[in-house]
Write a structure and sequence with these properties.
Elements (H helix, E strand, L loop, with lengths): L6 H20 L3 E2 L5 E7 L8 H6 L1 E6 L6 E7 L21 H9 L4 E5 L11 H16 L5 E11 L1 H11 L2 H4 L10 E5 L7 H6 L25 E8 L4 H14 L5 E10 L2 H4 L7 H16 L1
Parallel strand pairs: 4-5, 4-6, 6-7, 7-8, 8-9
Antiparallel strand pairs: 1-2, 2-3, 3-5
Helix pairs in contact: 4-5
Length: 301
């Protein structure tokens, strides 16, 4: 329906149109020298009930391959102990993990990468950050076809705290179900050095010590079972304290439960940071495993 032809309404309509065009331009695709196309700061939650902090943190960047269509998409969550970090890596001070570099590198290999922020502790507590992660996956499933991706080739991954979020989404089905995503809608999960016991930040929220041993509803291992979507679990030989052992235990327990969909790898000459940061290097073992996993399970799915 057009605007009525009087001066006041014409000015109002022009203002509204200009505002809408400015918002569109804000999120327009930008092509980089390597051909990767990038959209930044897209909100993945909507509604008047959102808090100021949700509006600030619940955004994502989309990295699209230079060419092709019906490509796979990897939703990627950054690390930072559920207390720090961001979708492009600018807040990471302890190592050289740059989420934006990982996203660009994998996009150059022919997939889309959706890098999502989420709310952080102590401003929120368990399970808010997991619920945010689920919402980012839901947004991607709904919108990636608009940018050339195939929503049937949807993967979820992340490093450290992002690996924990990945594990929780893949093991406790209600988070995705709550946002309208069936577990079968995700072709596979790729956690790197994620915590499989109750996360130490969740423990701190409960006034418990970092190395308290707990495996309740906040622990991916709590949900070990035979039937899951495919998992590629990667961890480092020089990982942070007890992290490699946790991941090895998780893989072993899943296999003991007769899970046929889990594949675990201990990567040598890597620490907690470099297992992720080295993904950008051609010939890197983690990179090769991720690309193979996505290709194989895109066909199966």
């Amino acid at each position: 329906m057009g605007c009525p032809y009087n001066l006041h309404t014409m000015i109002s309509c022009r203002f509204i149109l200009a505002f809408a065009l400015s918002i569109t331009a804000l999120h327009a695709e930008k092509s980089e020298p390597n051909g990767v196309r990038v959209l930044t700061d897209l909100p993945y939650k909507q509604g008047a009930a959102l808090s100021k902090y949700e509006k600030e943190r619940c955004k994502l960047d989309v990295y699209l391959p230079a060419t092709g269509k019906s490509f796979a998409t990897l939703v990627w969550f950054h690390g930072g102990g559920l207390k720090n970090g961001d979708k492009d890596g600018r807040q990471i001070k302890s190592d050289s993990v740059k989420t934006s570099a990982i996203a660009r590198s994998l996009a150059s290999a022919g997939m889309a990468v959706v890098s999502a922020n989420y709310r952080l502790s102590p401003k929120v507590k368990f399970p808010a950050y997991i619920q945010d992660a689920a919402a980012a996956v839901s947004w991607t499933r709904e919108h990636i076809a608009e940018h050339g991706g195939d929503p049937q080739k949807l993967f979820v991954g992340g490093h450290s705290a992002g690996g924990y979020l990945t594990l929780m989404l893949g093991m406790d089905a209600h988070y995705l179900s709550d946002v309208g995503v069936k577990m079968s809608d995700v072709a596979g999960f790729i956690p790197l050095s994620g915590q499989v016991m109750t996360h130490y930040t969740v423990l701190s929220e409960r006034d418990l010590g970092k190395y308290s041993v707990m495996a309740d509803e906040a622990a991916p291992v709590h949900f070990a079972r035979a039937e899951t979507q495919p998992f590629l679990v990667l961890y480092a030989d020089h990982d942070m304290a007890a992290r490699a052992e946790e991941n090895a235990y998780f893989v072993a327990l899943m296999k003991a439960a007769e899970n046929k969909s889990i594949d675990g790898h201990l990567l040598t000459d890597r620490n907690h940071g470099s297992i992720a940061s080295k993904i950008v290097d051609d010939g890197d073992r983690a990179r090769a495993l991720i690309l193979e996993f996505i290709q194989t399970n895109s066909i199966k799915h």
